[in-house]
Amino acid sequence: MQRWINTVTDWPKLVIVLVVALTMAIAVQMTSMKIETDTESFIPEGHQATLNNDRMKEIFGTPDLLWVGIVRTDATIYHTDTLQLIQSLTEKIRLLPGVVDQDVVSIATEDNIRGTADGMEVEAFMAAVPESVQSLKTLQQQIHDFNIYDGFIVAKDGSAAAILVELEPHDLLVDRGLDKFKVYGAVQQVVDAAAEGRSEQFHVAGKPVLESTLGLYIAEDLGLMMPLVFLVLSILLFFTYRSLRGVSIPLAVVSFSTMGAMGIMAAVGVPMYPTTTMVPVTLMAIGVADAIHILGKYYELVLLNPGLERKAVVRSTMTEMWRPVVLTSITTAVGFLSFLSMGMVPLQMMGVFAAVGIIYAMLVSLTLVPAMLILMPVRAPVGLARRMQQGEGVEGSGLISASLARLGQWVARHVTGTLFLTSGLLFLAAWAAASVYVDDSYVSNFQKGSAVVQADRVINDHFIGSYQFNLVLESEEQDAFYNPDLLKAIWSFQQEMESNPNVGGTISIVDYIQRMNQVMNENRPEMAIIPDSADLIAQYLLLYTFSGAPDDFAEVVDSEYRTANVRLFMTNGIYSKYHKIEADLHRLAAHYFDPFGVQWSIAGNGHISYVQTGMITNNLRFNIVATVLAIFLAAWLMMRSFTAGVFVMMPVLAAVIFNFAFMGISGTTIGWGSSMFTSIAICIGVDYAIHLIYKYRSEFQRCADAEAALVYTLATTGKTILFNAVVVIAGFMVLLASTMPPNQEMGLLVSAAMFSSFIATITVLPSLLLAARPRFVFDRTRNSGRSE
Amino acid sequence: MTMQKLALIIFAIAIITGMASVLSYGAEMSGTGAVQVEIE
Hints:
The structure holds two protein chains of two kinds. Chain A contains 28 helices and nine strands. Chain A is of the alpha+beta class. In chain A, strands 7-8-6-9 form a four-stranded antiparallel beta sheet, sandwiched between helices. A three-stranded antiparallel beta sheet of chain A has the order 4-1-5, sandwiched between helices. Chain A has a two-stranded antiparallel ribbon with strand order 2-3. In chain A, helix 8 packs parallel to helix 10, helix 11 (310-337) crosses helix 22 and helix 24 (677-703) packs antiparallel against helix 25. Chain B is mainly alpha-helical. Chain B has one helix at residues 3-23. The chains are: A alpha+beta, B mainly alpha. Chain A binds chain B through residues 48-49, 415-416, 419-420, 422-424, 426-427, 429-431, 433-439, 576, 579, 582-583, 610-611, 614-615, 617-618, 620-621, 624-625, 650, 653-654, 656-657, 660, 670, 678, 764, 768, 771-772, and chain B through 3-5, 7-8, 10-11, 13-15, 17-30, 32-40.
């Protein structure tokens, strides 16, 4: 390593040119970065839920729908002018590029089934917009009678109508130079234009809307967060060092590592997920630490050895600092890599590229930082130098150092009290932490009062629901779904599922057959049942084809009647509300369909989001344990002491417990944002303990006085740790300005964890060291030759 | 046993209890938490 340091300090300009050139070459790749908000891509490829969903789409082509809601607060939508508006809006939306023309569904497009003397007739609900009061009433009655459409295209109370828009598949959109963002934008434009001067309320919702809006938020967030963190860091660095080098060196490290990580991410084709928007902020807040610690040591050496030649100062600084810099970077990176155990792709990518960025920051800190220091004249901050000249020593230089030194003295004299007090608080925290649980929903990515959340609420309050589960039933026999017993089983299944308050409605081939039976029996309501004869059912379906479109049932049954799709519409996408739905789906599907030898599988966006959040539930426990073990092992190996590994973990574990208690008390649930804080807090917080232990060991080695060594350690390294914590806290607090609540939550949680981690590092850790007096610190013979 | 040793032992128990509580988060709120749902 010494050779590396000598080379870097001998060739500073060449080193700077190489680092800059390499980083720029990588950073150029960022221009090709894509944004990914589709929940299906959040689950690893080949997962059963994705396979089920792909198969469902392949057979039934039922993609996630875009819902346009037209709401009347003064009356029902059964008014000529409102119906005309729905008709014209439907026509305009059908013509938009990227929209599947024949799959736009509204009261203006759908057909009614009517019994006639010759059989049955399929005719449009609204061949022409009704104008007389009587014809408007008839239309209302027809919709009300046709079970499927009541609550689906018109609200059950008649106060709202929906236009359901199907977007072309992703590949087709791409071929046409489109994407769902653009199609949604075009639909919104048409709706906005139609809304002008109207008294009706207009809302656009559905999964494509949520995904498109989240994409916009991600882009907005990146544009806002990065400059904001940069600004906050600059201000903090300026007020700390009041020098060009104090600001420029740490900023260079964080900028280069962020560009490096994001460039590599784009180069290997990983898109920007909602989670990875936090990578730049995380890197900026963490990456600055190495430079701060190197600068801290540099200033300490300059103050203690005035007149020392610049190359000698830089070489001594790097000789003492490379080990903790490498150790903290590796432990942090290893901790982030434990995100690979989270199952959910966006969380895995967050971990991987944070780790890449941290290693990049480490390499930049070991090359660019000494090279830049070499090219700058030797100088320490004026304030510190003045105090040193007044004979106060490093520990007396500055109010903060002096306060930390006093704290060190106090801790050294109250070891037992500190440990008892902390233990008491930990027991209380353990009790509070026990009420934390997992919950999440796609809508929670948005501010509560935002238009997208309001639209989601309005649509789900008025209609059967914009979130879907699908039960796909597959039989080996052709015409299996003519079997009345099987159809009755489907109906019973639907009825039982509809008893769950979160299920707004269900649709299957059974609804159509029951309607046919009703109209063929004088439209008597009690005849809306499945007939007992398979032949009769076959006849109905044949009769239907004489006047109905051949693909009218394409979304609920395949052409051979071998595979059926039971569509269940949910009025919300909240994970905790889906537990019973998932359990019932499994139980009832097995109960009703296993006896028929019918294969069943669960699909739909609701199931996908349930599986995705379920990955957090199932994997977070392992992730926390893996992070703790990985960092413990890294610290053990690199500090060559098992006990050191244990001690290093104590402050961060205490911080995590306190944070969970905070979550329990504040009612914060574990979602994708908050699931990451534990590992991040452990990864970053452990650095404080490592720096403190290194310095304390080295000081004790020097003076052999436990209290004096602690006082000096807290006054010097303690101050650097404080500054490091302030920077990380301020950096993560910037996330509070994010447009996405999970980012805000995560910013708050990491900041809180960093605060507790810092407090624990400067109070609990020294108390533990002084109480246990471990050999890896206090055995001077064993430790001679090791220094910071 | 000195008070410091006792303090160390109690601290170790507190950390273990705390981490056990952290790791016992549940899939849904139910009393004090800890309801597990297995997903395919």
